[in-house]
């Protein structure tokens, strides 16, 4: 039987993330990861972000497909 997806309050489920547009603002991507927008911004600046981002002028956006890959565990199975 499939496990029911659960998320912390304010954190979207994987199914909800799959419905997002191709890119999302950093704070929205951070909510999906369960961290603050500032923490994700810091990781982006250090080059250690767990998800792919695109710089648009002075701001960054998170690539939704990469969020889905990370949240679904696909990254772990590819590494094995």
Structural commentary:
The protein has helices at 14-18, 26-33, 37-46, 64-72, 74-79; strands at 23-25, 53-56, 59-63. The longest helix has 10 residues, at 37-46. Strand 2 (53-56) and strand 3 (59-63) form a beta hairpin. The protein has 80 residues and is an alpha+beta fold. The chain has a three-stranded antiparallel sheet with strand order 1-3-2. It has one domain. The mean pLDDT is 88. It is built from five helices and three strands; from the N terminus they run αβααββαα.
Quick structural summary:
This protein has 80 residues and is α+β, with helices and mostly antiparallel strands. It has five helices and three strands, in the order αβααββαα. A three-stranded antiparallel sheet has the order 1-3-2.
Question: Which terms summarize this structure?
Answer:
3-stranded antiparallel sheet, single chain, 5 helices, 3 strands, globular, 80 residues, alpha+beta
In total, the number of domains comes to 1
Trace the largest sheet across and list its strands.
1-3-2
Low-pLDDT segments, ≥5 res: none
Cα Rg: 13 Å
Distance between the termini: 25 Å
Total beta strands? 3
- Which structural class do you get from the secondary structure elements? alpha+beta
What is the overall shape?
globular
Q: Into which percentage range does the β-strand content fall?
A: 15-25%
Biggest beta-sheet profile: 3 strands, antiparallel
What does the average pLDDT come to? 88
**SSE ordering:** HEHHEEHH
The tally of helices reads 5
Helix content: 40-55%
């Amino acid at each position: 039987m499939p496990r029911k997806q659960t998320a912390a309050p304010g954190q979207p489920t994987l199914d909800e993330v799959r419905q997002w547009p191709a890119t999302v603002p950093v704070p929205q991507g951070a909510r999906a990861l369960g961290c603050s927008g500032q923490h994700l911004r810091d990781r982006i600046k250090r080059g250690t972000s767990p998800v792919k981002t695109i710089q648009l002028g002075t701001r960054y956006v998170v690539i939704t497909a990469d969020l889905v890959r990370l949240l679904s565990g696909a990254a772990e199975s590819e590494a094995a």
